[in-house]
Specification:
- By secondary structure, the chain is α+β, with helices and mostly antiparallel strands.
- The protein has four domains: about 160 residues, Beta Barrel (Cathepsin D, subunit A, domain 1); about 90 residues, Rossmann fold (3-Layer(aba) Sandwich); about 60 residues, 2-Layer Sandwich (Dna Ligase, domain 1); about 100 residues, 2-Layer Sandwich (D-amino Acid Aminotransferase, Chain A, domain 1).
- Helix content is about 20%, strand content about 35%.
- Strand 26 and strand 27 form a beta hairpin.
- Helix 4 packs antiparallel against helix 5.
- The protein is elongated, with a radius of gyration of 28 Å.
- The C terminus is likely disordered.
Length: about 475
C-alpha cells in the first residue's frame, strides 16, 4: 500500500541536518539502486575499529565557491557502477534525510558529482528505508511535491553554531609525551574527535599556487579541521613556516603563524603592546656596544633585568643588582652576539606574577606563580610554585587586550602587579597546561577543544585559484 502522505516528484528539496546541509536539490531516481552525494577531498581518518571519513560538498551546483565540510562514520566501502557504466569504490555513510515533515535514516555513497545538475541522487534503497506504511510514491512527471527550501540559508550558516561532528585535529609538537600534549589528546577524544600528533621537524612542504601540501613520512598530510601549534622556541622559524603552510591549505590554526612569530619576538611584541597603550615594565633595546651605559641609565636605579630576546621558561633572564653588574651582563651578551633587551625590575611584585590563560577571547583561568626561595623568576620550570588567584577587572582586561593585539587564539599572558597597575611581562603562544590545570582544577584542555568546535565552521570560501600562466 502506498503512503499517500509522502509523494515525491523526480526532483525535490531536502536537508541533511546531521551533516550540516540545510538545503539540497535531490534527483529522485527509482532506476538507481544506491543513493549518492557529491563529495570532494574525501579522506578517511580515525582508528580502523571505528573509521570515519571527512569530505567537502558544494551544495549549490552553480556556486562551487561555497563549500561545506562534513564528517561521518563509515558504514561500508563498496563497488558502485554508475549510469555511464563506470565502476568505482565509494565510502558509504548513514545520515538523516528530511523532506517536509518526513525524516528517516538512509545510507548514501560519496562520489564526485561535480558538473552534474544535481549534487544528490536518491535511489531505491533509500526509498525502501522510509519507515511509513509503504514506500513514497514517486511521480516521474511531477517535481517539487514537498515544501520548497532556499539556498539563501547558506548565507546565514556562518552566524549559527557549527554542526556537531567529529573533527580531525593535528597537534604540531616535538613532545608527544608532554603533559600538555597528552591532555589535549584526552580532551579531544572524549568529545569523539580524532587527534594526530605531527613532529614539526619531520614535516616538509610542497609550495605551489595550485595545491600547497605538507608532507610527512613520504606522504601528503590531509587537510585538518584544526591545527594546534605547540612550537618550541628553538624551532620558531621552521615551526611558523609549517603552520603557515597549513594555513595555505585551508586548515584553521588555533594560533596563526604570524601571531606565533610576533609573540616570540619580544622586542616586536613589546612595541605592539606599547603602541596600544598596554602597561608593561619600561624596556630598552640598542644595537651598538657604545650605547651600553646609556641603555642601562634609561632604566633608572638598579636592579635591572637583562633578557635574551629568544628566552623561554625563565632561561636567559638575568637580574643585575648594580649598574656595574648590568654593564657586565650586557657586555657578555654582546660578546655572544645575542639579541637582548633591558627591562625595569618591578620590585613590588615580590617575585610573583599572574599567569592569565586566554582562550577564544576569554580569560578561562588565572594562577599566581611565586619564585623559589633565592630566585626572582616565578616560572614553574625554574622551581616556582603556583596557586589559584582572583584577578581584578583591570588585570582581566589587560590580559585580553594583550592577546588580542598579538592576535592569539590561545595565550598565556604573564602580568606583574605594580604600584601603578598591571604590567604585561610576556605573552606566550604555547602556554603549558599542567601548572594552570593543577592549580585551578579546571579542564583547560577541554576548553581549548570547545573553542575549536565553536570556531571551526562548516562554511568556508574556496581558496583563490592559481592564476593562468
Amino acid at each position: 500500500m502506498t503512503d499517500d502522505s509522502l509523494k515525491l516528484g523526480w526532483v525535490e528539496w531536502c536537508s541533511l541536518p546531521v551533516l550540516g546541509l540545510p538545503a539540497l536539490k535531490v534527483k529522485v531516481d527509482t532506476g538507481a539502486k544506491t543513493s549518492a552525494l557529491h563529495a570532494f577531498t574525501v579522506e578517511p581518518f580515525g582508528p580502523a575499529s571505528k573509521p570515519k571519513v571527512r569530505f567537502g560538498i558544494h551544495p549549490i551546483p552553480e556556486k562551487p565557491e561555497i563549500e561545506v565540510y562534513c564528517s561521518a562514520d563509515v558504514v561500508d566501502r563498496r563497488e558502485v557502477t554508475s549510469s555511464n557504466g563506470e565502476t568505482e569504490m565509494r565510502y558509504v555513510i548513514e545520515t538523516l534525510i528530511q523532506m517536509g515533515d518526513h525524516e528517516w535514516p538512509i545510507q548514501i555513497t560519496l562520489s564526485d558529482r561535480e558538473g552534474m545538475s544535481y549534487h544528490m541522487l536518491l535511489g531505491r534503497q533509500a526509498l525502501s528505508a522510509y519507515p511509513g506504511d509503504g514506500e513514497p510514491q514517486v511521480l516521474p512527471s511531477m517535481s517539487y511535491q514537498q515544501p520548497s527550501l532556499d539556498y539563501d540559508v547558506y548565507d546565514k550558516i556562518t552566524k549559527k553554531p557549527p554542526t556537531k561532528r567529529s573533527l580531525r585535529i593535528g597537534v604540531l609538537t616535538r613532545e608527544p609525551k608532554s603533559y600538555s600534549t597528552k591532555r589535549l589528546v584526552e580532551a579531544a577524544e572524549a568529545r569523539e574527535h580524532v587527534v594526530e600528533l605531527i613532529d614539526t621537524r619531520r614535516c616538509y612542504m610542497l609550495i605551489n599556487a595550485g595545491k600547497p601540501e605538507v608532507h610527512y613520512d613520504g606522504r601528503a598530510l590531509p587537510i585538518y579541521d584544526a591545527i594546534i601549534p605547540r612550537i618550541g622556541a628553538s624551532i620558531t622559524n621552521y615551526g611558523t613556516a609549517v603552520t603557515r603552510q597549513f594555513e595555505a591549505m585551508g586548515c584553521y590554526c588555533v594560533n596563526g603563524s604570524h601571531a606565533i612569530a610576533v609573540s616570540r619576538d619580544k622586542l616586536y611584541a613589546h612595541q605592539l603592546l606599547a603602541r596600544e597603550g598596554i602597561g608593561m615594565p619600561t624596556t630598552a633595546f640598542a644595537s651598538s656596544p657604545q650605547d651600553n651605559k646609556s641603555l642601562i641609565d634609561l632604566m633608572g636605579s638598579p636592579p635591572i633585568i637583562v633578557k635574551l630576546l629568544e628566552s623561554s621558561q625563565g632561561k636567559g633572564v638575568v637580574l643585575a643588582d648594580t649598574k656595574k653588574a648590568a654593564e657586565s651582563v650586557v657586555g657578555a651578551f654582546r660578546g655572544l652576539k645575542a639579541d637582548f633587551l633591558v627591562q625595569q625590575f618591578v620590585k613590588e611584585a615580590g617575585g610573583e606574577d599572574i599567569r592569565c590563560l586566554v582562550i577564544g577571547g576569554k580569560v578561562v583561568a588565572a594562577i599566581k606563580r611565586t619564585a623559589a626561595p633565592g630566585d626572582f623568576r616565578s616560572n614553574l620550570h625554574q622551581g616556582g610554585s603556583a596557586s589559584v588567584v582572583r584577578i581584578t577587572k583591570e588585570e582581566r582586561e589587560t590580559a585580553l587586550a594583550a592577546a588580542k593585539v598579538l592576535n592569539l587564539g590561545m595565550a598565556g599572558v604573564d602580568l606583574l602587579r605594580s604600584n601603578d597597575g598591571p604590567k604585561v611581562l610576556e605573552v606566550n603562544s604555547s602556554p603549558g597546561l599542567e601548572g594552570v590545570e593543577t592549580a585551578s582544577g579546571k579542564d583547560i584542555a577541554g576548553l581549548v577543544i570547545e573553542a575549536i568546535e565553536k570556531r571551526v565552521s562548516s562554511y568556508v570560501r574556496r581558496r583563490r585559484r592559481a592564476r593562468a600562466a
